[in-house]
Amino acid sequence: MSLPPNLTPQDFKSDLKPIWCPGCGDFGVLQAICRALAAIGRPPHEIAFISGIGCSSRIPGYTAAYGFNSVHGRALPIAQGLKLARPELLVLVAGGDGDGFSIGGGHVPHAVRRNDDLTYIVMDNQIYGLTKGQLSPTSPQGLHTVTSGYGSLESPVNPLLYVLAYGAPFVAQGTPADMPGLTAMIEEAIRFPGFAFVNVRSPCVTYGEADQQIKIHKTVMRRLEDLDHDPGNRIQALEKAETYGQALLTGIFYRNPAPRPTLGAVVRERQQQLMAGAAPRDRILDMFVQH
Amino acid sequence: MRATRSIDFAALSLQDALDLAVLIEEEARDRYQEFADQMEIHHTPEAARFFRYMADNEEKHRSTLVARRRARFGDATPAVTRTMLFDVEAPDYDEARAFMTARAALETALRCEQKAEAFFAAALPQLGAADVRALFDELRREEIEHQALIRRQLADAPPDPLLGGDDFADEPVGQ
Amino acid sequence: MVEDLVIGMAGSGGDGIVSAGESLISACAAMGYHAMMTKSFGSQIRGGESSCRVRMATGAVRNPGGTLDVAVALNWEDFLKFGAELPVGDDTLVLYEAKTGVAPDALPLDGVTPAEAVAVPIADMARTATGSDKGKSSVVLGLLAGWCGIGRDAILAGIRKKFAKKDERLVEANEKAFALGVQYAEAHPLATPRTIEPAVAGEPRMLTDGNDICAAAAIFAGCDFFSGYPITPSTEVMQLFTREIWKYGGAVLQAEDEIAGIGAALGASFGGKKAMTATSGPGMSLKTEIMGLASIAELPLVVVDVQRGGPSTGMPTKPEQSDVFQAIFSAHGDVVRPVLAPTCVSDTFEVTVEAFNIAEQFQTPVVVLSDQEIAQRKEVIEVIDTARFQVVERQRPDAAELARYERFRLTANGVSPVSHPGMQGGNYVGAGIEHDEHGDPTANGRVHQRMNEKRLHKLDPLRERDDLLRIEGDPSAPLALVSWGSTAGVCREALDLATAQGLRVKLLVPYLLYPVNERVYRGFFATVQAGLVVEQSYLGQLYRVLRMMVDVPAGLESFCRSGANPFRPAEIVRELQLRAGKESR
């Protein structure tokens, strides 16, 4: 028996230097992901990391895994096609709040209901950083930005409720202000068999609000495990998720204790049922022949 | 292996303690290198140079510790891993800032030495073996020495200008 | 006796006139005729007016034909809604429901006097046979069997097959309706007989349509993944995949929207599997951004666009050839995207296989520009020998290359071996952002220039593929036709007609619309003094692309009009004659 290679977080980092602003929350997220991957121990070439567009979507390039830094909002469909085509891969999906809940928001419910074995990490900074500080779908109401000079008139999307409402079987929230907690939940999300969602409140150091920075997170965050929260209870999870925007709760909101089979599993079942006795590909036209 | 296995200080052997110390230095070295890279690509050379210097220091400490470990325990497989550590001596990511001055970089390093000292101090009462306690106490004292060193450098460092980099910088660039 | 018969029928959806056409074409296949059936509908989902044309012949059938030989009207209102799709002429035999109360010499045909008109009590016979006026379609089949000499057993077998799935009593009732139709025909001989020559039963034939054979071709070519979003008239492509692809260890995803449809397919291609999506014009608009991503990420992908009338929702059930600009040019940035077009059901197979081969060889998205007519018309065709076709696989890095792998390495031919997740040593980041040879993002102008050069020039060998354009007729002819897609089938017949009338004509059919093989066009145009580029779009889009890429002869004109106004061979010959006259003056 060969032992799995002893992988360290450094093995999952690429040589590419991040373009993120110094102090950006995404550095911690990258570190947490690399540590979680090292703990899981799959070699980098068996991992595919799919993202959209935004500061955070640059993240695949900073890992040693296969990556696809695609177009804005479409990471989830690409990841699902990849996972269906190559179920043996460990597939991570990442992006920002704009990518996931604005331009790509329509894909999230469908990824949830299909329930393939993906881990979706949203780096939620409540602002558009790459384009210089416009309102994002998770920006709080009243926020002054370059596109809401008099304050935002819209109430934000609640990412946690959004995915919980559609039946996501694993929902967590973390912050790079708590690296051990963030790393642990990312690892657990990856290990969860099914669609796992981690909302990381990853502050924008350049355009983010002063009260949304890591130092503040450290003082205001509350761990769900200290709040007598039962992650197996979806109703409790929904109640806790309601606090998004007011409090910063971290940890696992919901982990379905009896998860249904993944899409990949039911696809393989169907393939096995139908593969026996199929005509070879070069006889496919026989179905049209009239006798 | 979990990503966040915590350290059982009571059960720590001298070999484990040395390995842990090596890993702490390694983590700090890597982070200072990352910070130096960040400063370089953001055109903040003074801070970059200082972080590079810190990375070299941490590497020196690390190699000294590695030598001690080798001499005592050879190449025995370590029982502790880097996944047990989170930013013990390494600067937290949010310590980095665009347009950091040399002084701000020094202040970051000082906080890291204080953080490391606090780590060893907090661990001391939990430790079981006497030789491990002795090692941790030695390491704790070293961190205090490093703090003194950095304080001296801080005293020599020019004060931050009244106006910082942010006050002169161009607008950020949309991508 | 005739060798070629064009039958057109119309009624309300409830009459089952399209089912009758399907029974008829399946009988044609069984008897050894060549045949083609097109369907046309109103926009109602159920119970609207519906029609079909069946063209059957002892020789090859290349298009749905022109003026009807036999017209069947179950009611005039519905029949007339199809206008030019069911043209009645001086030679047409018109069979119509007696209950319409229209006198044979007073048909509402706007000045046309058909050769013969027969009012038939179709509904009455149906009522006698089935107890209701349902079953008219079987009566019509009986009439056609009787009057046109089409094999009764073969039609009956089709009827049995169709209704046996439902109920044995239905089979009996329809058999009876069919028999009544036959008896009526026998009892009322025609003044202008329409009997077709018996077919030579021999080799088995295939019966299918453009969408089904497109999906089957993809599976043959090694496609393992399909994802798409339902859209008329392309949906049947996805439907066949949902039945078949699992059997080959593949998967299909009905996506939440058009963008996800192409996105998932691109994801599968990134994973090293051959993948496809299919759509129509509105879906193409939505897929455009990800087609650009496939171009810059250099990933193989086949995108089938079954064209319909546009713009916007346009005419979902009608054919048009107005997506040429979109297929070729709907990209931001400097992109060359290969576009192929089949001309009939049979060559949809080879075009689709070719699309996969080109996509794999050059690591590029390829558009298959089908259209509603080819996609949804049924044809009886010769059995295709799949052994004639090669299947190409994308070039993978070998061990030496993987030792120091650069995904976008600048090679002599611009094609860089492509790894996929799971391949050790091949790790890279695919990206829509400009990147260097390693795949790292860049905003460097020189790298951008070099990468554009790589992505565009790797397609150069495609422009040399003379086999993707076909020239028919007299090679030194002064008159020319250029046509593509379903319209090419009409031009092929026009070419024969014109040649028979003594005109010196040749025809160029490009299967590869883009990039343009300038050399083949230049050679073809060298002898041409006048000619027509025939296509079904208001703008004449291929004509305009050719004007952009090639020096066309001054006498080459666009002959085009909007979709749902099918061309007929005779009118193309008339147009050619006009040009020939001009040319000789």
Task: Please describe what this structure looks like.
- The complex is a heterotrimer of chains A (291), B (175) and C (585).
- Chain A is globular and about 75 Å long.
- In chain A, α8 links the parallel β7 and β8.
- By secondary structure, chain A is of the alpha/beta class.
- Helices cover 30% and strands 15% of the residues of chain A.
- In chain A, α5 packs antiparallel against α8.
- In chain A, strands 2-1-3-4-6-5-8-7 form an eight-stranded mixed β-sheet, sandwiched between helices.
- With 175 residues, chain B is mainly α.
- Chain B is built from five helices and no strands.
- In chain B, α1 packs antiparallel against α2.
- Chain B is elongated and about 55 Å long.
- The termini of chain B are far apart.
- By secondary structure, chain C is an alpha/beta fold.
- In chain C, 39% of the residues lie in helices and 20% in strands.
- In chain C, the strands form three sheets. An eight-stranded mixed β-sheet of chain C has the order 6-5-4-1-3-2-14-7. A seven-stranded mixed β-sheet of chain C has the order 9-8-10-11-13-12-19, sandwiched between helices. A five-stranded mixed β-sheet of chain C has the order 16-18-17-20-21, sandwiched between helices.
- The radius of gyration of chain C is 26 Å and the shape is globular.
- Chains in contact: A-B, A-C.
- At the A-C interface, β1, β2, α2, α9 and β9 of A face α1, β7, α7, β8 and α9 of C.
- β2 of chain A pairs parallel with β15 of chain C, so a sheet runs across the interface.
